User: Which sequence fits this backbone?
């Protein structure tokens, strides 16, 4: 199952509770496309622990601005609606998995 793409209207409800991973991306961004299968893979691994969603910055500029997304791919982790971590650029599945594990431990 792939990660759902969120519109502005769904977004607030989606991030309200628990730990949420948001992938801010654009269709024309090659590193974003490279990260997509990795994120799908990790969303399966962390099922039930972390919710995964994607936001297309081209279609949701307001959300991108709200989260100060200036470079993509941009990965934002929220806990109960508040940003607890944000990182930019592509990385290996291992690296990203490690970051997610760390968030769960805190």
Assistant:
């Amino acid at each position: 199952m792939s990660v759902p793409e969120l519109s502005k209207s769904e977004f607030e409800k989606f991030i309200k509770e628990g730990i949420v991973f948001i992938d801010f991306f654009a269709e024309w961004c090659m590193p974003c496309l490279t990260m997509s299968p990795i994120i799908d893979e990790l969303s399966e691994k962390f099922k039930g622990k972390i919710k995964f969603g994607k936001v297309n910055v081209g279609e949701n500029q307001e959300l991108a601005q709200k989260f100060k997304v200036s470079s993509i791919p941009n990965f934002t982790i929220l806990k109960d609606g508040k940003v607890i971590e944000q990182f930019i650029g592509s990385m290996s599945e291992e690296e990203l998995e490690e970051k997610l594990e760390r968030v769960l431990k805190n």
